[in-house]
Amino acid sequence: MRSSIKKIFWLYALMFLLLIGYLLKLSLYDSHSFVSNPYNPRLSQSNEGIKRGSIYDANGDVIAEDVKQEDGTFKRVYTNAKYYAHVVGYTVKGKAGVESKYNFRLETISNEFIQRLGNFFMGTDIEGNSLVLTIDNRLQEIAGEQLGNQRGSIVAMEPSTGKILAMVSNPTFDSNTVAENWESLNSDEENSPLLNRATQGLYPPGSVFKIVTAAAALQTDSSLNEYEIDCEGEERFGNNIIHCYDGTAHGNVKMDSAFAKSCNIYFSELGVKIGADKLISAASAFGFNKDIGLALEYSKSSFPLTENAEETEIVETAFGQGRTLVTPLFMAMITSAVANNGIMMQPYVVDHSLTPSGGVRNRTIPVKLNQAVSPELAESLKELMIGVVENGTATRAAFSVSGKVSSENNISGASAGKAAYSGEIQVAGKTGTAENPQGDDHAWFVAFAPADEPKIAVAVLLENAGKGSNAIPAAREIMKEYIQNLEG
Q1: Second label for 249, Cα 20 to 30 Å away, from 103, 212, 258, 393?
Q2: DSSP label at residue 126
């Protein structure tokens, strides 16, 4: 009898401890996701007595702010709405984007007692904390202009930190008119304007995936950089015939020339040579099938290849087709990892919060996600990518900048200095043409610059735009603008 009572006691004790643990997890770990979940009805309830914090770009330009109406209520007003719609989001019909994920910060009142006294005696507004994004408004506008009416996405990142410098998605919408256009925005299945293609759109990577395949091969055996084949433009693997783009016969190629010319036959044979397990290991090291920790809504990039995969699937996967799917953001992260000595950083879009009095709060600290490849392997991949721009499929990505001395004063009142770079800028990149079962091929281009001291990495995805080189101009203009304005 006593034995049974003891068993029941310990069973209830265990259940009690599990309940306590669950409640702690719920309140300490999961609470943020509940607060910012778009299905949370509290998000649609604004605190009418509080002026919601503003949202600024990295340079202090206003992107979103509350404007007081004649009746004393506040209306949310967005600047450059079509370029920022998917990042910043909206505050009607629920909330989305930064407005949703950082809702708690935007409604947090610093020095609440003093603010409420000022409101009571002097009628001053009670303000929430503001947010400063990592987005550079100049780059965001250029990215939006480069996309134009083209469906797709552009992402620019700082490789060493994971800071997102630009992120645009098209088709887009106007955050100022979401309420009026809500029905049409939700029913437009053909264009899906509410979808953030940068973080949620999944696409076959095409030849930009050859970065991962090259990493897998060189990690398996560094001498494979001397592996040579004779490309005749097509080759049979099992029941499939693989073609190089436009059936081009590349002749005798080793890894560097095959990478520069984007030879599908070479990378198909390389995939078979190293096997599925090596491809899986490299993809896992780069973070496929894993969470990336971004505060905004995102889709996991998918690499479903298994160790017992048939040869035809290995072949297709090795040059970026098959069932592999990636987001433009994730390709920017892979590119950044190569630029950053093999280290992949967690991406983020909010740099810090600002109190109404100008105090800095919640500054984001860069976080290392994983070591995708060794520094030595990253250097080898970088050299392959430089070859693409110098004598391969992306020669149009090359650019130069001119150094200037500006007499204008910056925010601190000091005179701006000389530009950090001048002359020809070495670029590392990779084009990709991804076959699309639903229509014309998608165009990819990923790159970083300067190659010897990377400051910016860019991924461009243009839906149904044909060959990958069509995506080059957008990336070039963004990199050029950013580097041109870096100060030494």
Answers
A1: 212
A2: P
SS (H, E, C) 49-111: CCECCCEECCCCCEEEEEEECCCCCEEEEECCHHHHHHHHCECCCCCEHHHHHCHHHHCCCCC
| Residue 336: HSE in the Cβ half-sphere, 13 Å Cα cutoff | 31
- Give the SS3 label for residue 24: helix
Structure tokens at 245: 């783009």
Helix (H, G, I), strand (E, B) or coil at 409: strand
16: how many CB neighbours lie within 10 A of its CB? 10
String of DSSP letters for 413-451: SPBP-BBS--EEE--EEEEEEE--TTSSPEEEEEEEEST
Alpha-carbon dihedral sign for residues 400, 406, 408, 413: positive
Tens digits of residue pLDDT in 397-430: 999 998 765 544 443 333 456 778 889 999 999 9
In terms of Cβ atoms closer than 10 Å to its own Cβ (0-12, 13-18, 19+), residue 202 is middle
Please report the pLDDT score of residue 165 as a whole number.
98
Spatial contact of 261 and 253, defined as CB atoms under 8 Å apart: yes
Give the bridge partners for 222, in sequence order.
Answer: none
Rounded Cα–Cα distance for residues 306 and 276 (Å): 7
- Chain segment 227-247, per-residue pLDDT in tens: 999 999 889 988 889 889 888
In this prediction, what percent of the chain has a pLDDT beyond 90?
72
C-beta of residue 129 within 8 angstroms of C-beta of residue 53: yes
**Which residue shows structure tokens 């010319």?**
261
Determine contact, residues 287/330, Cβ cutoff 8 Å. Answer: yes
Q: SS3 letters for 257-314?
A: HHHHHCCHHHHHHHHHHHCHHHHHHHHHHHCCCCCCCCCCCCCCCECCCCCCCCHHHH
Q: Judging by DSSP bridges, how do beta strands 55-56 and 130-133 pair with one another?
A: parallel
Strand-pair partners of 167: 155
111 CB burial (10 A radius; 0-12, 13-18, 19+) = middle
Output the six-digit token pair for 2: 């006593």
* Residues 6 or more apart in contact with residue 292 via CB below 8 angstroms: 298, 300, 329, 330, 333, 346, 347, 369
pLDDT range class, residue 169, cuts 50, 70, 90 = very high
Per-residue pLDDT of 90-124, as tens digits, reads 999 889 999 999 999 999 888 776 877 777 777 77
Q: Retrieve residue 112's tokens.
A: 């609440």
CB-count exposure of residue 29 (10 Å: 0-12, 13-18, 19+): exposed
Residue from 142, 304, 131, 288 nearest 211 by CA: 288
In 3D, which of 213, 272, 207, 265 has the Cα closest to residue 235? 265
pTM listed for this prediction = 0.87
Cβ atoms within 10 Å of 151's Cβ, excluding its own: 18
